[in-house]
Amino acid sequence: MSGKYDLIIVGGGISGASLLYTTAKFTDIDSIALIEKEPEIAAINTHRTNNSQTLHFGDIETNYTLEKAEEVKEGAELLAGYLEHYDGNREMHAKRSKMVLGVGDEEVEKLERRYDDEGFGDLFPKLRAIGREEIAELEPKVVKDRDPGKEMLALQTPDGYVVDYGAVTESLVERAEDEDGVDVYTGTEMTDITPTLDGYTLETDAGRFDCDVATVAAGSHSLQIAKELGYGEDKVLLPVAGSFFLADDLLNGKVYTLQMKKLPFAAVHGDADVHDPSITRFGPTAKLVPTLERGRISTVSDFFDVFGLNAAAFLSYANILSDRILLPYVLKNLLYDLPKVGPKAFLPHVQKVVPSVELDDIERAKGYGGVRPQIVDTNNKSLDMGEAKIVGEDIIFNITPSPGASTCLKNAMKDTQTLMDFFDGEYEFDESVFRADTIDNFPRADGSPDFDGSNAANGARSSDTLEDVPASDD
Q1: Which of 75, 133, 167, 248 has its CA 20 to 30 A from that of 399?
Q2: How far is the C-alpha of 344 from the C-alpha of 336, rounded, in Å?
């Protein structure tokens, strides 16, 4: 097996699939290939059991600043628009209520300030501040058996998209494969990548591939590959494995708790499963692991490749983990995977959402959870939260911890714009039609999609009609 392509994308998760879809459908690039090492796409972190199935808008994520929420909001609306457009039968997602819950005077004041003073109520028109009675109507078990003297407030929205990101990935790839010049290779592991005079040569266990431009969207492995080419020397990874606990039908939608100060990881929340609302998940936990993939000992050596075993990396880890709040949190999270001890230690987090839950009501979700690569900046010896992108010479490396899945199409849009620069104007990206296919279908606060009704916006467009639509200047 071998081939020569204009663009090769390494990685068949939600990020790689989003870029494949965007470049195949909305540019006139002649030939594109996606290479995935697993036998199936979406087999690792994108698989529905390995993430919290949440589409993050920034509305109830209390660790987001307003600026961060504005950035994430557009990305989430792009993907939500895609789901509204192509998943009318709700095979890939479900819509449910979503809220962040504040209990007690301090937490209620924080939510009130966030909603009224910090601008989140204005940024998210569908977001409402609701009290105990309305919370009980939406989520009866959140209020049941809770101290009636405790003040309660929730910021609630109907935009609780519960997403099977694996199914979305399959959908994106299938639509991309409808286009001429698009090939997808699964079960094909890249073993080496080498710069050439006119692009890159990729050696795989199935043969050699050549391309003019490359993009690596391989999760934690992206930084490993970048370092092999001399990029990202000022970065290492702090791999965090998330686990979940399961219970029977306790919640109708999503219920988040407030983020603890100085903790970079997601606050514990409860979620009804996307395909089986009778199952409620609680999590994620956040356990540090020396691997790039959950449960794969073979990726320990990959972690040390990324870590580098140098003084800057050790000093950065020491600086981060010496924090008096973060260190106890990390140590406590090590307990949650232990038999018997783990559920007992995690129970108070569940009871913060559903007070009536008892120990026998929860069990560890075996086989659930993935690894999120938190970026460490070795220059500043600090965590660099959010998606990391390294742009090299005719190559892009994407390292996408949460909310990378939520912003996958926005990330793909940005990368496509960069790719057009790499190709020096040889190809064009029609961003206006891309937006019509995605974000214009997202229902706004008035109940209507931001949609102009034109036929051009109603569905995917084959590449042979691309030249008939003027390129966007946006």
Answers
A1: 167
A2: 8
Residue 371 burial by Cβ neighbours in a 10 Å radius (0-12, 13-18, 19+)? buried
Q: Is 310 helix (H, G, I), strand (E, B) or coil?
A: coil
Cβ neighbour number for residue 192 with a 10 Å cutoff: 11
Look up residue 138 and give its two tokens: 């939406």
CB-based contact 20:169 (threshold 8 Å):
no
* pLDDT per residue as tens digits for the range 292-328: 887 788 888 888 888 877 888 889 888 888 888 888 8
Report the helix count and the strand count for the chain, using DSSP H and E.
14, 20
Residue that has been written with the tokens 């988040």 in this structure: 256
Provide the edge-to-edge strand list for the sheet that holds 363-364: 128-130, 152-163, 93-103, 254-257, 269-272, 280-283, 245-247, 363-364
* CA–CA dist 411, 23 (Å, integer): 12
Can you state the percent helix, strand and coil of the chain, rounding each to 5? 35, 25, 40
Q: Which residues contact 203 (CB under 8 A, 6 or more apart)?
A: 190, 191, 192, 193, 194
d(C-alpha 436, C-alpha 85), whole Å: 10
Nearest in space to 215 (alpha carbons), one of 395, 391, 390: 395
* Strand partners of residue 295: none
